[in-house]
């Protein structure tokens, strides 16, 4: 049996899980939070999730959660598509998240993972994969996770897997089951010794990477696929469009052909996890001169400064969380 080696830049031992989670309305030890084996989402992928980041601010005594409200609004839209009906609104979920960060009290960059899911059939529900008549649940867990993109830029494949069309599953929602597509595409890329893959949609146009959106740069102009290209409308993608506007770069949102990426001056990916990460090689060819380009570097620097509270937060995108002096001890996957 062969296993694909983890890329050299992956953090050893994986991300550390924090002590506390928020599970079905209560704060509890992450080690004790459990879901039943019969959980419908576990069996059919009928859950939705978000990925949110909190960054340590200069001085190390405060975290800033980036675009918390926008993430929870998207989360609740994803819930709606799967008929996951939670007794919380975006403000309630944001408050629970801030309290969770405060309890874990970690002065480290943190990844926040809300999960809404179909739990179990209510009395009188006929067996089947239906969404109605199934109870709903929600949890939020957090991991310590720093920057993980390879420093010299990403080497990407154009995947042999296609991004599913919205008529197959609702791609504008972060539906757990839909991520089988991302997992297969990432696995294929890694088996070929690459970092990530860009997927085309059923029309053969560029859609996005496995967990990030795609931009190309030609001269002073950015271009990124439209929402109708079967993408997840990324919050980082939206942030980049705003940052580009701030520095006078035009951004076209339209169909993008794969050959347009191959001849672009620069290509970069955007996502909450990755941040803004240059693609230096695609389908075995260098992008530009094969090194991170100036526009990507500039946007990436501004993005980093913004999320770390070093630029004015004119748009109110940062939720500041003061930390207590004594952090809770953290768990590893082995201790869970
Ligand atoms: C499929 C997919 N596309 C794009 C993104 C980027 O979205 P965001 O910038 O909101 O993290 C993600 C990450 O959540 C994703 O999973």
For this entry, give a set of tags.
336 residues; D-amino Acid Aminotransferase, Chain A, domain 1; D-amino Acid Aminotransferase, Chain A, domain 2; 9-stranded mixed beta sheet; globular; disordered N terminus; binds pyridoxal-5'-phosphate
Q: What do these coordinates show?
A:
By secondary structure, the protein is of the alpha+beta class. It has two domains: 16-146, D-amino Acid Aminotransferase, Chain A, domain 1, CATH 3.30.470.10; 154-292, D-amino Acid Aminotransferase, Chain A, domain 2 (Alpha-Beta Barrel), CATH 3.20.10. The chain contains seven helices and 18 strands. The protein has helices at residues 40-44, 68-81, 90-104, 179-191, 235-246, 258-262, 294-307; strands at 16-17, 20-23, 26-29, 47-49, 52-56, 62-66, 110-121, 134-144, 154-158, 196-200, 206-209, 213-218, 221-224, 250-253, 266-271, 275-282, 285-286, 318-322. Strands 1, 2, 3, 4, 5, 6, 7, 8 and 18 form a nine-stranded antiparallel sheet that branches. Helix 5 links the parallel strand 13 (221-224) and strand 14. Helix 2 crosses helix 3 (90-104). The longest helix is centred in the N-terminal third of the chain and has 15 residues, at 90-104. 40% of the residues are buried. The model is unreliable at 1-12 (pLDDT under 50). Bound molecules: pyridoxal-5'-phosphate. Residues 51, 182, 208, 211-213, 232, 234-237, 270-272 line the site of pyridoxal-5'-phosphate (PLP). The site of pyridoxal-5'-phosphate has 14 residues, from helix 5 and strand 15. Keywords: Amino-acid biosynthesis, Aminotransferase, Branched-chain amino acid biosynthesis, Pyridoxal phosphate, Transferase. It catalyses: L-isoleucine + 2-oxoglutarate = (S)-3-methyl-2-oxopentanoate + L-glutamate; L-leucine + 2-oxoglutarate = 4-methyl-2-oxopentanoate + L-glutamate; L-valine + 2-oxoglutarate = 3-methyl-2-oxobutanoate + L-glutamate. InterPro entries: Aminotrans_IV (IPR001544), Aminotrans_IV_CS (IPR018300), Aminotransferase-like (IPR036038), B_amino_transI (IPR005785), BCAT-like_C (IPR043132), BCAT-like_N (IPR043131), Class-IV_PLP-Dep_Aminotrnsfr (IPR050571). Acts on leucine, isoleucine and valine. Its cofactor is pyridoxal 5'-phosphate.
